[in-house]
Amino acid sequence: MTDGATLDLKCRCGSFRAEIKDASPETGSHLVCYCKDCQAFARFLKAEELLKPRGGTGLFQTVPSRVQILQGKEHLACLRLSPKGPLRWYASCCDTPVCNTLSSRKLAFAGFMTPNFEGDNVAETVGPVVAVVHTQGAGVGPGDLQNRGFLKVSWQILRRHFGELLSGRLSKTPFFDADGQPTAAPRMLTLEERKAATPE
Questions:
Q1: Minimal CA–CA distance to 38: which of 98, 91, 116, 84?
Q2: How far is residue 159 from each of residues 6, 62, 66, 106, 175, measured CA to CA in Å?
Q3: Residue 83: CB atoms within 10 Å
Q4: What are phi and psi of 18, to 5 degrees?
Q5: What long-range pairs does 156-162 form, CB within 8 A, spacing at least 24?
Q6: pLDDT tens digits for 47-93?
Q7: For residue 11, which of 118, 121, 88, 101 has the smallest C-alpha distance?
Q8: Mean pLDDT rounded to a whole number for the chain
Q9: What is d(CA 56, CA 138) in angstroms, rounded to the nearest whole number?
C-alpha cells in the first residue's frame, strides 16, 4: 500500500472509533455529493449537521482494506433506502452516519463522511475536492453548483479496485464476513420513512 497518513474517525458520542490507514489524495478521492439519497441518510438519522450548505455530503472514497475498527464494533449497523441501493453504515450508539458501500464486497469501495474525521491534518490528508456530483439534488441557496469530476472519480474507484483484486486484499473488509455477507443485517426503510427523510 502507498504510504500516507492515518485518518481517525469517531461517531458523535465517541463510542465508535475507526481509522483509515495510509490515506492520501492518491489512495482516496475527496468529493461532494448532493444526491437526495445521501441527504435522506443523514436526515433519517437526524444528523443534518453533518451536511454542507444546500445538502452536500462530503465524502472520502477509498478501499475497505485500509479501514480498521478500533472501538465499538458492536455499534456498526447499516440500512438501505431501497432494495437495490447501497449499504449505508452508521454507528447505532448515536445514529452517526459513517460510510457507504455497495451491497457486496465484489467492488473494493467505501465512501466515508468527512465530518467524522478528527485531527489537525484532515484537509491535507483527504486533499482538495476533485468532484462535485448530483447537484440537481441540491437545496435552494446562493451560488451556481455544477457537476464536475464524475468520470475522474469513477476511474479512480476502478483503479483502486483492480489494485486490491491483484493484491488479494479484496476480501479484507470490516463490512462483510468471510462468506461475503454484511456484518450487520441491513435495515430496509419503509416507503413512508424514506419519503419523510427525503428533501423535497
A1: 98
A2: 21, 11, 15, 14, 21
A3: 8
A4: -150, 170
A5: 156/29, 156/61, 157/29, 157/61, 157/107, 157/109, 160/27, 160/62, 160/63, 160/108, 160/109, 161/63, 161/107, 161/108, 161/109
A6: 999 999 999 999 999 999 999 999 999 999 999 999 999 999 999 99
A7: 118
A8: 95
A9: 7
Amino acid at position 185, single letter: A
Query: Quick one: which of 174, 191, 196 has its CA closest to 183?
Result: 174
Q: Closest Cα to residue 183, out of 104, 84, 81?
A: 104
Give Cα 197 distance to the centre of its chain.
Answer: 18
Task: Enumerate the H helices of the chain as residue ranges.
Answer: 36-44, 122-126, 150-167, 191-197
**First-to-last C-alpha distance (Å) of the chain:** 42
The reported pLDDT for the residue numbered 3 is 66
CB 189 within 8 A of CB 196: no
**10 Å Cβ neighbour count for 140?**
6
User: 175 is written with which cell numbers?
Assistant: 463490512
